[in-house]
Amino acid sequence: MSQHSTGLGSVLEDAGIDFWGKPDQGAKRIPEEIIETAWPSVDLVPAGASLGRVAGIGVSDTGLLQRIFTVAGIFDRYEPLLIDTGGRTGSLEALAMHLGDVAYAPITPTLDAVRKAKEARNRVESVQRTHPLRWCGVVLSAFDSRIGIERSIREKAYREFGDEVRAEVPRRAVINEAFQGGTRLGDCHDTIATNLARVFQDFLERDLLGRPASTPPNVQP
């Protein structure tokens, strides 16, 4: 939601990200940036137009975002919190990783996506020296088994990650329709959508939240 003029970037600016942060100032701002959605108990904080500018600032206080959320009571208000780094590296990723408990990477049908997932795993291992961030693996997304190059990339991903491939979300029109329309797969009544919703739910419960899931990993609808 980077089209919004304010958002997380403004929160970090108020907190003084360019020096030793002031989490109290960021905590005062963040309630103003929370946007309600049509889904019960699901809210969003947009990136904000200033997030790109903030991304270029070196961060000495990598725990700043975690302290902002703590002071603002975000951890008491929501479970879970999902942070999308948008493929960014640098200060924003460092803040997100020092906020999180668990990390994963998506892999789409490109060799570049496999490479970036490997780099993400390496960065998580580096962060683990100072912060207990757990690497839970990768999710294969939008692969079409009918296309030879995509089958080859899928095989490469399995060779690289093995059991760390925790779920597969095949290319299906219903996913794009749900994304574009802002609807939930679980609200659809056809079998494909129901099975796909279960894949997402099981990955969330089993791998991100560490709870028992209803189906084993890597089951494709």
CATH fold label of the largest domain: Rossmann fold
SSE class: mainly alpha
Number of helices: 10
Give the CATH H-level superfamily of the largest domain: P-loop containing nucleotide triphosphate hydrolases
Largest sheet: 3 strands, parallel
Q: What is the topology, as strand order, of the major beta sheet?
A: 3-4-5
Order of helix and strand elements from N to C terminus: HHEEHHHHEHEHEHH
Give your account of this protein's structure.
This protein is mostly helical and 221 residues long. The chain is built from ten helices and five strands. It has helices spanning 8-14, 23-33, 51-55, 64-72, 74-77, 91-99, 111-127, 148-161, 173-181, 191-208; strands at 35-36, 43-44, 102-107, 134-141, 165-169. Strand 3 (102-107), helix 7 and strand 4 form a beta-alpha-beta unit. Helix 4 packs across helix 6.
Brief digest:
The protein is mainly alpha-helical and 221 residues long.
Features:
221 residues, mainly alpha, 10% strand, 10 helices, three-stranded parallel sheet, Rossmann fold, globular, single chain
Topology:
Layout: H1 8-14, H2 23-33, E1 35-36, E2 43-44, H3 51-55, H4 64-72, H5 74-77, H6 91-99, E3 102-107, H7 111-127, E4 134-141, H8 148-161, E5 165-169, H9 173-181, H10 191-208
Parallel strand pairs: 3-4, 4-5
Antiparallel strand pairs: 1-2
Organism: Mycobacterium shottsii
Protein name: Chromosome partitioning protein ParA
